[in-house]
């Protein structure tokens, strides 16, 4: 896989230097014993202290990955970037990772969870959408997993989706296990959408109280004057591989939804990779020594 296509390091730039540039790995470290600057050993990827103390070398050393996002990664940096490029692609498939990188299923699943947590943190820090002079479309979607993709439903996962009509801003909120009541739906909408704008929903009575929360409420009509085509497009994206896929654990569904929101926020693959690495570095800053 050519990582340059995804904004990864070029042939002249090593994967380690690329990760250091994004703050995922430290460029330098000080000795935890004497405080002297450590020397970096590129072959073993360790920081070592060579300071002489009373005629003896301090000899303190630690791995450069200690305390970072890659602390538990036993693969080399190039393999990690290759996995990350596949994880951040629209058609991510764990079977492809196992085949191309020779990783075990457990390794792929664990790294998908850790990367999903980075996407989840990004989603939590996003501002509300909507507000004056905006139109936000709202609907609920059932993401169901069927036996053999066509048999009985083995798990249902309900979400509320909202998207600004004239921008790429969106949210996906978990409704699984909560009834479709006015209190629950209004609580989600006020959490993710600023008041003052237009909110378009279906005719379910649970949306009838939106006007009292500062929104101009419009309902879909049969003449297609008031419509929700943006939401209908998101239906297909969520159900065709982004979230629903054979073998994915139901408890990991929220992380896959966060991955979908992150990918949708950054259309360019190189920007998507850079922003992910920056966010991962912010979640796991390199230790001071």
Number of helices: 8
Structural class: alpha/beta
Order of helices and strands: HEEEEEHHHEEEEHEEEHHH
How many strands, which pairing sense, and closed or not: the largest β-sheet?
5 strands, mixed
Give the proportion of residues in helices. 25-40%
What is the alpha-carbon Rg in Å? 23 Å
Strand-residue proportion: 15-25%
- Head-to-tail CA distance between termini: 35 Å
Total strand segments = 12
- Principal-axes shape call: elongated
Describe this structure in words.
The chain has 289 residues and is of the alpha/beta class. The chain has 8 helices and 12 strands. A hairpin with a 5-residue loop joins strand 8 and strand 9 (170-174). Helix 4 crosses helix 7 (253-265) and helix 4 packs across helix 8 (269-283). The longest helix has 20 residues, at 105-124. 28% of the residues are buried. The model has no long low-confidence stretch (mean pLDDT 82).
Describe the SSE topology:
Elements: H1 15-21, E1 39-41, E2 46-48, E3 52-53, E4 56-57, E5 61-63, H2 77-87, H3 94-101, H4 105-124, E6 129-130, E7 135-146, E8 153-164, E9 170-174, H5 182-192, E10 193-194, E11 198-201, E12 216-219, H6 229-242, H7 253-265, H8 269-283
Parallel strand pairs: 6-10, 7-11, 11-12
Antiparallel strand pairs: 1-2, 2-5, 3-4, 7-8, 8-9
Helix pairs in contact: 4-7, 4-8
